[in-house]
Amino acid sequence: MLPGTYVMPVFAGWLLAVIINYLADTLPVLRKLSIVRCPQCKTEKSIYYYFIPLRCRNCGEPAKKRHILILLLSVFLCVLISFYRPGDLWLNITNWLVTGYLLLIIVIDIEHHLVLHPVAIAGAIIFSIFGCIAHSYSITILGGLAGFIVMLAIFSIGHFYSTYKAKKIGSDVEDALGFGDVTFGGVCGLLVGWPNIIPALVFAVVMGGVWSLLLIAINMLRNRGDISNVFIAYAPFFAISTGFIWLVLH
Questions:
Q1: Predicted TM-score (pTM) of this structure
Q2: Does one domain contain both 176 and 157?
Q3: Are the C-beta atoms of 37 and 29 separated by less than 8 Å?
């Protein structure tokens, strides 16, 4: 690719990072779009703060490390996608939007342990359109149903076990998966369609299992064998595997 051809993916990645960081700062806390304030002095922040993450003009509070990380990651991924599919502008725009949405899911789930229903609904609408264009109506719907049903089965089994364990030891029920993960499984299925949702879910489960084993190993090395109080965000694994399969196939 010529140097000039990187201008659009860099701009797209930058703009996506602004949107992702803003939504991740407002939606999980307020459940709506709102004015953002400095966490230290409560001074109102301009939207330009997200374009160029700087210190607070009032108290000097530095920008969140996540803002800078997402900015760099979003730009890198958009450039990489354009390099992978040079010359196909509309496909690249679609892939940029998919990447931005999945990054938003990842950030919110890691920071707040949530897959917000409004975000899932928005994803279902967008991915239904993309899925129908890329596959067909039937493949898209079947993929969404398969993703939802498989995740619902996993959620139900986990909930049954958590309920049994809680009753046995006399504690509160703590599910490994939330119902937001179930709806997100359906959203992912709408994007990649049937039968691609099956390997996407399998890869996600494998990655989640490997990550869990790593956490167990780290805790054992630190003489902290019990990780029952450690939360593992699973939506990022579903997002990564779904995004990978989508980009490989399209």
A1: 0.88
A2: yes
A3: no
